[in-house]
Structure formats: C-alpha cells, structure tokens
# Entry
Amino acid sequence: MKNFLANCDSFINSGSTADNILGVSEITELNSLWKMLVAECLGTLFLVVIGCGSCIALKQPAEYVNYVQVALAFGLTVATMAQAIGHVSGCHINPAITVSFFVTGNIKLLRAIFFIVVQCVGAIGGSALLKLITPEEKSGNLGLTVVSENVTPVQAMLIEALLTFLLVFLVQSVCDSRREDIHGSAPLAIGLAVTAAHLTGIQYTGSSINPARTFGPAVIGNSWEHHWVYWVGPILGGIVAGLVYKLFFRVRKEESESYNF
# Structure
C-alpha cells in the first residue's frame, strides 16, 4: 500500500504523463494561451467573412458566382492570415489541421480542444458579421457549403477527405522543423493548396476542407443538411495526412540531404 501511494505521489508531482497528453503546462501559460486563442478566433472570423463573402452575388444571380473568384478569395485569405498570425498560434484556423497536429504529437489535447472551440466561435462571428453587412435579399445561405445533387453524401465525404488530405499534407510538410530546403513562402504555398482544392471541390461539395468554415454559416442560417460530411471528411483526411507524413516523409535526424528548391 505504501509503495502504491508513493507511486501515485510521484506521478502527481511529476505530472509528466498528464502533461505529455493533456499539455497542462501550456494551459497554465495564460498570456501565451490567450494570444493563441484570440489569433485562431480572429483568423477564422476573417476566413469566413472574406471567403464566404466571395460566394455572395450582389449584382447577379447566385448561380453565376465565379468559382475562380471563390477559390482565390479563400486561398489568399488563408495565406494572408498565415503570414499575420502564424508566429502566434501556427494559424490552424481549421479543426482538421488542429486534430491532425494533435494526432501527430505537435500539440497537446487541451490546446487542441481550445483551438477548435475558438475556431468555431470565430466562424459563427464571421458569418454573423457577413449577414449584418449583406442585404437580406442577397445574403442567401451566407456561403454555406452544400453537397451537389449529383453527388451522394458518402461520395461528398470522400471528396472532402481527399481535398483536406492535400491541404494538411502540405501543412505538415512546410511545418517540418527539420527541413532545410524550404526557402520560399510557406503561407503562400498553403494558400495555393487551398485554392487548388477549391477549384476542384466547389462543384462537388462547395469545398469546405474546414469544419469551422461550414459550421459558422450553418449555425447562423440554421441549415444542417448533410452537415456531418463537413466534419467527418476533413477530419478523416487530416488525420490520415498527418500520419502518412509522420510515418513516411518527416525528416529524420540522420537525414542530412534533401532536394533543394
């Protein structure tokens, strides 16, 4: 019994296991944590305002919204926010990226949970602002992603998973601290990946690749049809991308050579 109590006391005092999983020490650093949470909330808010705003047709019928315009709006917004707040929180602004980084051990559980919560709050706030600044007769569904009538929900889920895999695989790659060959702009590369995914995915699912981006308009518009697609697909794609990169492509300590771009 004494040995058991001694072991428990040692575990509690060390806190190593709990901290490795939960990241309690990160949460106690309140100044750093609050900056991260504000950055994630603000970044997701602007992603929804600008990205979803590009889906609204003020001067023509909604069906004439230009796919290239929407793709560039989302891609450039992600690149802009990554440049602006990447040094603060990593600029996830996407639950799929946050979950992927948790699964691969880049962030701890508590930070991941807080990130996802504030990302969703930011998305709701962004959608509410978009509704406020848009004439009611033109607001439509506030840029909510919808599954094409020609695509089944399962197909839509797989499409979202594939497109998110592309994005998260790139994010994991450019965030690999052991790479020495990256001399270009990581934010721009991430923005281009978002743009590429949208150019293909809009006609299938609206190309969410971000559960929070769909969650915000869904809450404000109270529209939940096939909503599960936009959580299951991106998170599944993000997890697989993270694990594939970590297991097969992450630079190891003994790897001194790589292609130089």
In short: Residues 1-15 have pLDDT under 50 and may be disordered. The longest helix spans residues 109-133. Residues 98 and 112 are 6 Å apart (CA to CA).
